[in-house]
C-alpha cells in the first residue's frame, strides 16, 4: 500500500509539473496522456513432480502509465509506467509465494517498469532510460508480455529511417529487469537491427545481438506474404549463427564459448477466417566439446516459443548443449464476431544425446473481446505436454480477463 501511495504522489507530481512553467510561456510537461491495464488471471500447474503439489494462482496486474511532451517542444517527450503484481488470499498456492508447490512465475512485486525520455529529430528517434524492447517476433529480444511483470531494459536506443524503406535500430543495454527479481541484473549488451521493406509483401532483416558475456548472434530473416480476396499466405525463413562472446559485464568475466546455428521456417494461411500453418525450428547443439552452451536466446519472450507449458525455458535460455528441434502444426478459426480459437501441436527432439525424444505437446487457445465493455477481453488457454525419453508430463491451464483503458 505504501508503494501504491508513492505512485499516486508521483502521478500527481507529474500532473502538477504540467502546469509549472520554465518561463512565462513554457510548460515542463504538456499534452499529458494516461493509460492503464487491469489483468486478472487464474493459472493451474501440474508439473508432474512428486516433490511439488499442483499450483493454483489467482494473480492481478495493475499497470499505470503517463506520457507527456517535454519543455513545450515537439522533439522531447517522456513516458513512465508502473506495474503492481498481487495475488488473492484464497488462491495463492504456488511457488515462489508458497514452498512445496509448482512454479507460477508471477510473484507479488512492484516496479517502475518503464521510465524514459525520447528525442526525435527528423527521421531519428533517440530513447534513453528504462524501456521495453520487442524486436521482430521476439525470438531474440522481447518483453515477455505473457507474464504479469514484463521484462524491460535500461540503456539507450536509436532508430533511423532516413533511407527509403530501410529502418536501422541500435541499442546499448546496461541492465536487465526480468519477469522475476532473480532474473534482474547488470548486463553490457549491444543490439543491432536493420529491416528493409522491399515491397508491400517482402521484408528482409539482418541483425547482430551481442548479449553480455553469453554470446554473439548474427542472423538474417525473410518475411513474405501474398493475398487474394479470400486467401492470405504468409511465410518466414531465418538463419542465425551464435559464436563466442565479445562483451563482458564486469572486468575479468569469462566470455563464454559457443558455436551453434539457428534455423526457422514458418508457413501459414488464412481462408475465410480459417487458420492453418506449419513451422520447423532448430536451436543448434554445442558445436564443440569445450563450448559453454548450444544456441540460446536469454532475452527472448520464451513463453511464445517451444510450447506454452514452458518445459524448455531453462534449456533455451542458458544451456541447450544437445540442441532442440521443434516441429509444429496449427489450426484454428478467427473472426470479429467469434473471436479466435487456435490449436498447436508440437513434436520435440534433441539433436544429440541418449534421450533424443523430448516429447510432444498440445496447446489450445480461445480469446475474444467482450462487446459490451470497451477494452475488455477474455481468454481461456491450456497446455498438455507429454514427456519423451525423460522428464515429467506437464499440464497447465489459464483463465484471464484483461481490461485496458486510457486517453488517446
Structure summary:
The chain has 408 residues and is mainly β.
Please, could you describe this protein's structure?
The two termini are 29 Å apart. The protein has one domain (2-406): Porin (Beta Barrel). β9 (166-177) and β10 form a beta hairpin. The strands form 2 sheets. The protein has an 18-stranded antiparallel barrel. It has 2 helices and 20 strands. It is 5% helix and 56% strand. Mean pLDDT is 92; it is low at 1-24. The protein has helices spanning 2-17, 313-318, and strands spanning 21-23, 26-27, 29-46, 55-70, 76-93, 109-121, 124-131, 152-160, 166-177, 185-197, 202-211, 215-227, 231-243, 260-271, 274-283, 324-335, 339-349, 357-369, 376-386, 394-406. It is mostly beta strands and 408 residues long.
Shape: globular
Which structural category fits the helices and strands? mainly beta
CATH superfamily: Porin
What's the number of domains?
1
The average pLDDT is: 92
Q: Keywords, please?
A:
20 strands, Porin, two-stranded antiparallel sheet, 2 helices, 18-stranded antiparallel beta barrel, disordered N terminus, 408 residues, mainly beta
Draw up the topology in text.
Blueprint: H1 2-17, E1 21-23, E2 26-27, E3 29-46, E4 55-70, E5 76-93, E6 109-121, E7 124-131, E8 152-160, E9 166-177, E10 185-197, E11 202-211, E12 215-227, E13 231-243, E14 260-271, E15 274-283, H2 313-318, E16 324-335, E17 339-349, E18 357-369, E19 376-386, E20 394-406
Antiparallel strand pairs: 1-2, 3-4, 3-20, 4-5, 5-6, 6-7, 7-8, 8-9, 9-10, 10-11, 11-12, 12-13, 13-14, 14-15, 15-16, 16-17, 17-18, 18-19, 19-20
Amino acid at each position: 500500500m505504501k508503494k501504491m501511495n508513492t505512485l499516486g504522489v508521483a502521478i500527481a507530481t507529474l500532473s502538477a509539473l504540467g502546469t509549472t512553467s520554465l518561463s512565462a510561456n513554457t510548460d515542463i510537461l504538456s499534452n499529458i496522456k494516461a493509460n492503464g491495464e487491469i489483468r486478472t488471471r487464474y493459472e493451474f500447474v501440474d508439473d508432474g513432480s512428486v516433490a511439488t503439489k499442483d499450483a493454483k494462482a489467482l494473480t492481478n496486474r495493475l499497470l499505470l502509465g503517463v506520457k507527456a511532451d517535454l519543455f513545450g517542444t515537439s522533439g522531447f517527450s517522456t513516458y513512465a509506467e508502473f506495474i503492481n503484481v498481487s495475488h488473492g488470499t484464497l488462491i495463492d498456492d504456488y511457488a515462489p509465494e508458497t514452498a512445496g508447490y509448482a512454479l507460477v512465475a508471477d510473484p507479488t512485486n512492484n516496479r517502475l517498469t518503464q521510465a524514459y525520455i525520447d528525442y526525435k529529430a527528423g527521421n531519428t528517434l533517440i530513447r534513453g532510460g528504462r524501456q521495453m524492447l520487442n524486436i521482430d517476433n521476439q525470438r531474440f529480444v522481447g518483453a515477455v508480455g505473457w507474464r504479469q511483470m514484463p521484462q524491460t531494459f535500461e540503456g539507450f536506443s536509436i532508430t533511423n529511417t532516413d533511407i527509403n524503406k530501410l529502418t536501422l535500430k541500435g541499442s546499448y543495454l546496461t541492465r536487465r529487469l526480468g519477469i522475476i527479481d532473480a532474473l534482474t541484473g547488470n548486463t553490457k549488451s549491444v543490439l543491432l537491427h536493420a529491416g528493409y521493406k522491399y515491397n508491400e509483401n517482402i521484408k528482409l532483416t539482418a541483425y547482430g545481438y551481442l548479449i553480455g558475456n553469453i554470446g554473439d548472434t548474427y542472423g538474417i530473416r525473410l518475411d513474405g506474404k501474398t493475398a487474394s480476396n479470400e486467401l492470405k499466405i504468409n511465410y518466414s525463413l531465418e538463419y542465425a549463427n551464435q559464436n563466442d562472446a565479445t562483451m563482458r559485464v564486469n572486468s575479468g568475466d569469462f566470455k563464454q564459448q559457443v558455436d551453434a546455428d539457428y534455423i526457422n521456417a514458418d508457413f501459414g494461411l488464412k481462408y475465410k477466417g480459417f487458420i492453418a500453418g506449419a513451422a520447423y525450428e532448430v536451436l543448434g547443439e554445442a558445436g564443440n566439446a569445450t563450448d559453454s552452451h548450444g544456441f540460446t536466446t536469454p532475452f527472448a519472450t520464451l513463453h511464445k516459443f517451444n510450447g506454452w507449458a514452458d518445459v524448455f525455458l531453462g534449456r533455451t535460455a542458458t544451456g541447450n548443449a544437445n540442441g532442440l528441434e521443434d516441429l509444429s502444426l496449427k489450426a484454428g478459426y478467427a473472426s470479429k464476431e467469434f473471436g479466435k480459437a487456435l490449436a498447436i501441436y508440437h513434436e520435440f527432439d534433441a539433436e544429440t544425446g541418449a534421450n533424443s525424444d523430448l516429447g510432444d505437446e498440445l496447446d489450445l487457445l480461445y480469446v475474444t473481446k467482450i462487446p459490451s465493455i470497451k477494452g475488455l477481453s477474455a481468454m481461456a488457454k491450456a497446455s498438455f505436454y507429454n514427456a519423451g525419453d525423460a522428464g515429467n508430463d506437464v499440464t497447465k491451464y489459464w483463465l484471464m480477463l484483461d481490461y485496458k483503458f486510457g486517453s488517446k
